């Protein structure tokens, strides 16, 4: 027996497959993967993973500076580009999973690619010939890495990026596939509970990653620090494959979604001179029998030409299908293209939020020069300070979901609390505040370091507690919690179910774009401020540099981005709080206003 899943895919229903018993295999695999990604990669799809991965990036930059003699700016730019590649490939992985492989194969291949990348990275810490000689403090010029050494390092990054491109958009959706039961009235509640536990589980994994594993790396070295994730990756691949007979595997779409969207654009362009009908009668438009969308929406009316029938005998086959998809496509395909276009303004408003997260690459250099003791005999590793961000994020999400939403629902009648757009705006505002606080804190730290005579010694310990950085981490955690969850919910609302994996990947692709923006900003700032023999603001010696100026620039850009967000909010109708999953005129909540 087969049941329709939206309009795109089908699920093979078998009472002996799927269900809660598959969760240990999927969650265990997911935890292991995210545990690893939290150590070596950037910006994973879900908010917990992405935040923790930035925390791990800060520790990896120490590895690049120590064993590859890279400057802080160069290492940050490389990690930013790597993060952009890892995030950008998520859209490729989503399309391949939906159109060709299926989510099970995508996750399986992704874990294998990630394992290979982890092994190569571990080998760089095991084989001395794969890294450069350490640079002593008496050397003015240090030997950089050779082409072969960089090739090995970048090969590790490439395999990891490919694996991440498949795992990120597909893992959470694959777990939801196991619980999908159309006839069960409790299905929606079960799936929502799954998402909650999914994020909670990955949050626990990433907390361990940015505390225990980073502590091991700092205390016992990179060989053991990278070796443990390799063992975990073996466990991840094995566990996931062992559970294969129990999984429900959603069949792939017979039509290429990306090609269909491109065909809709081409068809609309080819018919650009045709006049649109004055009425919304569905007889003018091509709607297959199985579709629920009969007439196109009124916004972006120029695209409606793509599904408009000019000559039924020429445009349609005897069975009712289109004879030339490059000249005529379905209303549903046009609506999918419109939905993708609608989210682009809000999607672009989130770039700056992700750019602000790149401060972790420099924050580790700050905390390494400060007193990191919580107790007299316990010192927090510099790269583990991002755990305060995760704690703040977890507390805020719990408070919002369990306390704030019920109160708001009781007194305002809004069952889902604040709208996704409102939460996104709050996140952007708090992020701006976090950058301003980071600039103030760094200015205080730098002045104290110079006053204590440490201007020429970037490794000297400043008489200042690193706990000064906790508030800015907490603010950034709250900003991420409100903005990220709101943005994912916004995408889920506006995009049709046939684009589920793409909706999941859009968040990650946004981090890819922001990583490129962040890398370009760092490289440009480093080049401009070091002209004429001056000390760069982003110098490896942060006591001579001016990280506070860099944070002020981020704060100003975040403020401009907030203004941009407020402007584009005027073009959205956010009066409804329900969350449908069909892109049609009657049900979509967040739509661009109709053309006048």
From TrEMBL:
Q: Which GO terms describe its cellular component?
A: plasma membrane
Q: Name one GO biological process term.
A: transmembrane transport
A Pfam entry, by short name: PTR2
* UniProt entry keywords in alphabetical sequence: Membrane, Transmembrane, Transmembrane helix
Localization, UniProt: Membrane
**InterPro entries recorded:** MFS_trans_sf (IPR036259), POT_fam (IPR000109), PTR2_symporter_CS (IPR018456)
TM stretches of this protein: 20-39, 76-97, 106-127, 147-167, 197-216, 222-242, 343-362, 382-400, 500-522, 549-569
Superkingdom is Eukaryota
The UniProt record lists the keyword Transmembrane helix: yes
Q: Which GO terms describe its molecular function?
A: transmembrane transporter activity
- Decide whether keyword Transmembrane helix is in the record: yes
Task: State the membrane topology.
Answer: Multi-pass membrane protein
Tell me, in one coarse class, where this protein mainly resides. Answer: membrane
PANTHER family, per the entry? OLIGOPEPTIDE TRANSPORTER-RELATED
**Family per similarity comment:** Belongs to the major facilitator superfamily. Phosphate:H(+) symporter (TC 2.A.1.9) family.
* Name used for this protein in its record: Nitrate transporter
Give the organism, scientific name: Solanum tuberosum (Potato)
This chain is encoded by the gene named: LOC102580650
């Amino acid at each position: 027996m087969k049941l329709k899943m939206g309009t795109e895919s089908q699920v093979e229903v078998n009472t002996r497959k799927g269900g809660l018993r598959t969760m240990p295999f999927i969650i265990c695999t997911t935890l292991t993967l995210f545990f690893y990604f939290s150590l070596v990669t950037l910006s994973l799809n879900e908010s917990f993973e992405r935040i923790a991965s930035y925390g791990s990036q800060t520790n990896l930059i120490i590895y690049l500076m120590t064993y590859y003699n890279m400057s802080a700016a160069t290492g940050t730019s490389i990690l930013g580009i790597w993060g952009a590649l890892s995030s950008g490939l998520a859209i490729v992985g989503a399309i391949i999973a939906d159109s060709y492989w299926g989510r099970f194969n995508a996750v399986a291949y992704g874990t294998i690619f990630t394992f290979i990348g982890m092994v190569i990275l571990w080998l760089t810490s095991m084989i001395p010939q794969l890294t450069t000689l350490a640079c002593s403090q008496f050397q003015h010029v240090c030997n950089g890495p050779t082409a072969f050494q960089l090739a090995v390092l970048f090969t590790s990054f490439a395999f990891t990026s490919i694996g991440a491109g498949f795992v990120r958009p597909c893992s959470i959706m694959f777990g939801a596939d196991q619980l999908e039961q159309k006839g069960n009235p409790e299905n929606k509640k079960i799936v929502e509970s799954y998402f909650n536990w999914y994020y909670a589980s990955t949050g626990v994994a990433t907390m361990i990653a940015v505390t225990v594993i980073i502590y091991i790396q700092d205390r016992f070295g990179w060989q053991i620090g990278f070796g443990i994730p390799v063992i975990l990756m073996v466990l991840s691949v094995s566990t996931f494959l062992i559970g294969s007979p129990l999984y429900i595997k959603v069949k792939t779409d017979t039509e290429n979604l990306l090609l269909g969207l491109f065909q809709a654009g081409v068809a609309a362009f080819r018919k650009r001179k045709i006049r649109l009908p004055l009425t919304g009668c569905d007889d003018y438009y091509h709607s297959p029998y199985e579709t629920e969308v009969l007439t196109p929406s009124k916004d972006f009316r120029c695209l409606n030409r793509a599904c408009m029938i000019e000559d039924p005998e020429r445009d349609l086959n005897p069975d009712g299908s289109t004879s030339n998809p490059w000249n005529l496509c379905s209303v549903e395909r046009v609506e999918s293209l419109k939905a993708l276009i609608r989210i682009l303004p809000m999607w672009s408003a989130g770039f700056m939020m992700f750019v602000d997260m790149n401060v972790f690459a420099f924050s580790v250099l700050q905390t390494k020069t400060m007193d990191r003791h919580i107790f007299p005999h316990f010192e927090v590793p510099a790269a583990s300070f991002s755990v305060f961000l995760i704690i703040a994020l977890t507390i805020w999400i719990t408070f919002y979901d369990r306390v704030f939403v019920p109160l708001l629902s009781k007194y305002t009648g809004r069952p889902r609390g604040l709208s996704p757009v409102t939460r996104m705006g709050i996140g952007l505002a708090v992020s701006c505040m976090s950058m301003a606080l980071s600039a103030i804190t760094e200015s205080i730290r730098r002045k104290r370091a110079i006053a204590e005579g440490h201007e020429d010694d970037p490794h000297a310990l400043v008489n200042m507690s690193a706990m000064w950085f906790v508030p800015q981490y907490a603010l950034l955690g709250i900003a991420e919690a409100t903005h990220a969850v709101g943005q994912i919910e916004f995408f889920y609302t506006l995009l049709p179910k046939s684009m589920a994996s793409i909706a999941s990947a859009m968040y990650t692709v946004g981090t890819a774009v922001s990583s490129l923006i962040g890398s370009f900003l760092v490289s440009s700032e480093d080049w401009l401020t070091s002209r004429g023999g001056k000390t760069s603001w982003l110098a490896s010696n942060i006591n001579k540099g001016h990280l506070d100026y860099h944070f002020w620039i981020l704060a100003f850009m975040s403020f401009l981005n907030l203004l941009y967000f407020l402007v584009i909010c005027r073009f959205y109708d956010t009066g409804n709080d329900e969350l449908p999953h069909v892109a049609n005129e009657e049900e979509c909540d967040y739509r661009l206003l109709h053309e006048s």
